[in-house]
Amino acid sequence: MKTIRYFLSILLLIALLTISLTACKSEKPEEELPSTDISDYTIVRIEVASKQLTNLTPKLKKIILESTKAELKVTTDYVPRNETLDESGKEILIGDTNRSASIEALEELKAKGYDNGFIIKATDTKIVITGLSDGDTIIGLKYFVNNYVVKSQKENTLPIKAGDTVIQETGKLLYATDNFDLVVLETLSTIHDPNTKKSTQQYTYGKIIKLEHNGENNGMLIATHETVGWTDLRYPVYRSTDDGETWEMISRVSDSYNRGAIVGYQPYLFELPTDIGDFKKGTLLMSACSRIGETKTIMVLYYSTDLGETWKAFCNVDVGGGYNDGGWWSDGLWEPILMYEEETGRIYCLYSDELENGEDEETRKNGHNQRLVYKYTTDLKNWSTKYEMVACEEPDLRPGMIGLAKMGNGKYALVYEMCGDSCRIYIKFADSLDGWDVADHGKILQTVAGEGMGSAPAIAWTPDGGECGTLFVTAHHTINGSSSTKCDLFLSFDYGETFIDISNPIPNKPNDNIRSGYSPGFFVDKDGTVYYVNDPESSPGSMCEKFMFAKIKVY
Q1: What is the pLDDT of residue 357?
Q2: Separation between Cα atoms, residue 527 and residue 396, nearest integer Å
Q3: Which residues, other chains included, contact 478 with Cβ-Cβ below 8 Å and sequence gap of 6+?
Q4: Which of 102, 232, 271, 426 has fewest C-beta within 10 Å?
Q5: Where are the beta strands (DSSP E) in 342-386?
Q6: How far is CA 108 from CA 53, 77, 118, 128, 371, in A?
């Protein structure tokens, strides 16, 4: 009996201790972040600012109001000539204002030696947000909004205190929307440059992928291009293991599958996201065109199981007619790209088809100068019959050079050039890769200001940049544009309904001597980062081109 009483006493003691500890824990108030009352602050930006920074200042005011209920005044740092600068007020300083707090913060930032960067620094009466350029200041504003404004825990306060300092190196701002969506160039590098005016090498059809299905090798970048004007037409393959900062050539690809074939046309890279037939997830594929003399063009597939170091041709998707030195009456097959559709488990090969073309007028009336077609496979060896995507009734219209991206609304966006109509770029949409309205040419792709683009397009979609993500399109040249480079990037924030233009981070200048900017390449990784390759001229007046890389992020 004593034992039972003792045991019950122990249980009662444990229960009382548990209740006591719980009560102590619940009575302890939650720890609040250090904060600053901003109810009597004023937003002050520099008097002479870029249009983007000027537009974003009232947007900052609106976001602060929505997040903290504090309605702040907005002004500039302008001081009339007959007045003395008064620095006694509480202020959020935007850009390199004439306030001493801004000047001191900017000096601290410059001491870091960055090419691009911003600083956010708080004192007893000032919150400074400034950068090495207006673009850097805008990136700093984005950081300020994300890490302070929207994280406010109570009205009229921001979670920042005197002495808090953030300094960050940034990329180069390419564009900012009025909703604080920023397009930033984070890396720019040269993959390969012949570096001599005597060279005639021209690098067209540049393509790039980032490995995402290869385990510990994920993150590796692989790039290639077509080579023109050189004795070795094999496709060079380049690799970067530091996210595009540096590159090395690791292999050259030749067609050993078709006897007598000459390679050198329109390579495209792809990584298998799952097992397909006998090919394992992570296998690298390359689709490209070979030719035999002037009479046969062959759509060939290659594969690599060692991260691009060796390649083997193993399959012909389709066989076409003559090359005819690229003439209007050739009847070949060109520009294959690959796309995986998860819903069906199919790999699609989409390309330009001249097989219904002909030199005599009657053949041309009954067929198509060129059409856009596709085949699909579930094992990478056996391919379906051929289906059309775009085929024009007008015999002289020539749709070609497919660019394709799947967007967040589930639709596919197709871009292509329409030669016979000044090779303008058109865009059309479909709900699936089998759902194309063949007779629908889509619409001419142009900006809200009326700028268009022509020849050799590329397209990509990233989920970053607002509710609809961001659609990127570029091409060989712009039409009716004011850009000094004549090869802008077009961006759409509404799934391709409207476009604006921004400067191209790899500005090529197309001319009659080289094919600079011809069919560039995009790749978007699972995090939404955009990888872009293009081929500007190697140096002013040069007859050769260099192969360049840009990493672009939308925030």
Answers
A1: 77
A2: 42
A3: 451, 452, 453, 454, 486, 487, 488, 501
A4: 232
A5: 346-353, 371-377
A6: 22, 21, 10, 12, 59
Q: Any residues with CB less than 8 A from the CB of 418 and at least 6 apart, and which?
A: 397, 398, 399, 424, 425, 426, 441
> Range with the lowest mean pLDDT among 120-129, 351-360, 369-378?
351-360
Q: Is the pLDDT of residue 540 over 80?
A: no
DSSP of 312-328, one letter per residue? Answer: EEEEEEEEE---GGG-T
List the structure tokens of 264. 């050198």
Among 496, 426, 428, CA closest to 461: 496
What percent of the chain stands above pLDDT 90? 75
Q: How far apart are CA 296 and CA 316, in angstroms?
A: 12
Q: What CA–CA distances, in Å, run from 169 to 128, 139, 177, 244?
A: 16, 10, 21, 17
The length of the chain, given as a count of residues: 555
Q: Which two tokens stand for residue 534?
A: 């293009």
**Rounded CA gap, 175 and 167, in Å?**
21
| pLDDT attached to residue 500 | 94
Say how many Å lie between the first and final Cα of the chain, rounded: 72
15 CB contacts (<8 Å, ≥6 apart)?
none
8 A C-beta contact, residue 444 and residue 452: yes
Measured CA to CA in angstroms, residue 131 lies from 110, 405, 555 at distances of 9, 35, 17
What one-character DSSP code corresponds to residue 191? E
Position 518 pLDDT exceeds 90: no
Q: Which of 6-15, 162-171, 498-507 has the lowest mean pLDDT?
A: 6-15
Of 145, 149, 186, the closest CA to residue 169 belongs to: 186
- 8 A C-beta contact, residue 125 and residue 99: no
pTM of the model: 0.90
Calculate helix-pair angle for 134-144, 51-68, nearest 10 degrees. Answer: 10
Burial label, 428 (beta-carbon count in 10 A; 0-12, 13-18, 19+): buried
